[in-house]
Design brief:
CATH class of the largest domain in chain B: Alpha Beta
Number of domains of chain B: 2
Number of domains of chain A: 2
CATH architecture of the largest domain in chain B: 3-Layer(aba) Sandwich
Structural class of chain B: alpha/beta
Structural class of chain A: alpha/beta
Helix content of chain B: 55-70%
Number of helices of chain A: 18
Radius of gyration of chain A: 20 Å
Shape of chain A: globular
Strand content of chain B: 5-15%
Largest interface: A-B, 32 and 31 residues
Distance between the termini of chain B: 68 Å
Largest sheet of chain B: 5 strands, mixed
CATH topology of the largest domain in chain B: D-Maltodextrin-Binding Protein, domain 2
Strand content of chain A: 15-25%
CATH topology of the largest domain in chain A: D-Maltodextrin-Binding Protein, domain 2
Distance between the termini of chain A: 57 Å
Oligomer: heterodimer
Chain lengths: 389, 194
């Protein structure tokens, strides 16, 4: 096997775990690949550097891979995702003031996303009556799971994310500071930033996104379609290395080692303890030390999480349509689904590996999602930017 | 050249931003505003209401600008990135140089092509400058290290300065290393034997 040298970009987030461990723990080297792991500062850079070939592969937020393939908001460059780097992992964090206002008007336990969303609607209405500025929510990118997760949640409670509040893009490393200085009232972002805000005593985690969508595709290992077509062996080797790394990460016995690898200053650069919390799904949710546990807070390869699920791509495309980012057509939906490539995953790990069927998205509101009926999904909602229903 | 454009430069590096601003002014653009602080970036940009926005790629706030592609209440004028399907070369050149350009309000691309070109060449000039500076700096550092190692050898082995340098050079050649590396080893060893 010849040694290949590849450049792969990543953003310092816990859902880059499989990639970072694959490289730093030698799983890629075992496949004969020498990876130059490059830390990036923005999703725009990641997209552009992957598009023009400065990166051979990238840790990419799933909706960006889809938007790039459909030519939304930018040049059209078809992308394929043969490995899902993470399922879930996001959380919604609020300032102490907003958290208290929501708790004060909630008609029940605010751990229930429907109750918290309706409480948010009450807070929003009161602010409007009093002539106060609308609340501001931070998210990471226009084409991001964070944008769609926030919108899905608040719209279910009757809050129109475009009319009733402001949604603003903030780079993840700036989230905490922006919450502290009041630039935003809340944010939705991946680990470790929610925990960092709680540890500093300036934020309360209201929800793990796994409470809103029990199974939500998050980041993928992305390649240009053309490169993947021309280098099938390399793609298979990388997917295998990632599958092995994911198994290693999911073995609880390895967690301390994994947390130490990720904590390095040139990787994520936070304390190993914060990363350990994320991997264990046991998060401190309030400055007083209260914790909440959800073993599915972040899934790295477990229960078939590494195998890309085209139904997830269809759900993300449906959100783009719902919020006016993409026109609706069956062709576009098919093109979006074709970004997620379970076939390439299967080729790489071998048909003998037992394939765990992908679980349903299982959203807390609305009918079960059917990738074959996007129009039906869109008709189910009162709030949205499309004239369905 | 069309000098009526209002141009915003978002760059935390004041020297590079100044070099770019000078270039734009020399080319006749009088309305150039620099932003080095990225909090409330969108609000500041809306206040300035520019036609063209230039941002360095080391800046995480580039993602904030991408929000301006969206049609939403928060966005007042649509923004497009300086690329289209046929424009691979210009995006490659820009990314290589480390800069990205956005056009506000449906301006035609050909009207601002020269702004992007100028921006790319100034960014490239800046990195050349920086790497030359870095080279000079490390050359100076190396000379200091070599001088110290020479001093140690002269004292320890009663050598002349010339002989000490010759020994460093010969060792470096034999071990296929740089003289500065061997000199550093001498210093480290001397520290250990203290």
């Amino acid at each position: 096997m010849s040694i290949a040298r590849l450049r792969i970009g990543f953003i310092p987030l816990c859902d880059a775990t499989a990639l970072i461990v694959a490289v730093d723990k030698g799983f890629t080297a075992a496949e004969g690949i020498d990876v130059d792991l490059v830390r990036e500062v923005s999703w725009s850079n990641m997209r552009d550097k992957l598009n023009i070939g400065l990166f051979d592969a990238a840790h990419l937020i799933a909706p960006v891979a889809i938007a790039s393939s459909l030519g939304l908001g930018h040049v059209k460059v078809p992308i394929v995702a043969p490995f899902a780097l993470g399922v879930n992992g996001n959380a919604i964090t609020m300032s102490p003031a907003l958290y208290a206002s929501i708790a004060a008007v909630a008609g029940g336990q605010i751990g229930d996303p429907m109750i918290s969303a309706k409480a948010l609607a009450k807070v929003v209405a009161t602010r409007k009556q009093r002539g106060q500025e609308p609340l501001t929510f931070g998210m990471t990118f226009p084409f991001s799971t964070h944008n769609y997760h926030l919108r899905f949640w608040m719209a279910a409670g009757g809050v129109d994310p475009d009319e009733d509040v402001r949604l603003v893009v903030l780079p993840p490393p700036y989230m905490v500071e922006s919450l502290a200085n009041g630039h935003v009232d809340a944010f939705c972002v991946g680990a470790p930033w929610n925990s960092v805000a709680v540890d500093l005593g300036i934020g309360f985690i209201l929800h793990f996104v796994s409470e809103i969508l029990p199974r939500a595709a998050e980041k993928v290992l992305a390649f240009r379609s053309r490169w993947a077509r021309e280098n099938p062996d390399m793609v298979a080797r990388l997917v295998r290395a990632h599958a092995h790394a994911a198994d290693f990460v999911e073995d609880v016995a390895n967690r301390d080692e994994v947390a130490a690898i990720l904590a390095a200053p040139n990787r994520i650069g936070v304390t190993p303890e914060v990363i350990r919390r994320t991997l264990d799904g046991r998060l401190k949710i309030a400055p007083d030390g209260a914790t909440r546990t959800d073993p599915n807070y972040l899934m790295v390869g477990r229960d078939g999480a590494g195998r890309p699920d085209p139904a997830q791509a269809a759900w993300l495309y449906a959100q783009m349509v719902r919020w006016g980012q993409a026109p609706f057509s069956d062709d576009m939906c098919r093109a979006a689904m074709a970004v997620f490539r379970p076939d390439l995953y299967d080729d790489a790990v071998g048909a003998t590996a037992s394939i765990v069927p992908n679980g349903p998205i299982g959203a807390f509101a609305g009918p079960a999602f059917d990738p074959g009926d996007i129009a039906g999904h869109l008709r189910a909602w009162r709030i949205g930017r499309v004239p369905f229903g | 050249m069309d000098s009526s454009f209002k141009i915003v430069i978002v760059d935390k590096n004041p020297i590079r931003a100044a070099i770019l601003e000078d270039g734009l002014r020399e080319a006749g653009h009088v309305q150039v505003v620099r932003i080095d602080e990225t909090s409330h970036l969108l609000a500041r940009i809306y206040t300035i209401d520019p036609d063209v926005i230039l941002i360095d790629l080391e800046n995480p706030s580039r993602d904030v600008l991408e929000q301006m592609f969206q049609v939403s209440r928060a966005v007042k004028r649509p923004v497009a990135m300086f690329v289209d399907q046929s424009d691979r070369a210009s995006i490659e050149a820009a990314v290589d140089a480390g800069v990205s350009a956005y056009i506000v309000g449906g301006l035609r691309k050909d009207r601002v092509q020269n702004i992007l070109d100028l921006c790319i060449s100034r960014f490239n000039a800046f990195s050349r400058l920086e790497s030359e500076l870095e080279k000079t700096r490390s050359a100076l550092e190396e000379r200091k290290v070599i001088d110290r190692a020479k001093g140690i050898l002269m004292k320890a082995k009663s050598l002349s300065e010339e002989a000490a340098y010759g020994l460093l050079r010969k060792t470096a050649m034999n071990e296929n290393k740089k003289i500065a590396e061997v000199a550093q080893s001498v210093i480290t060893a001397a520290e250990l034997f203290k």
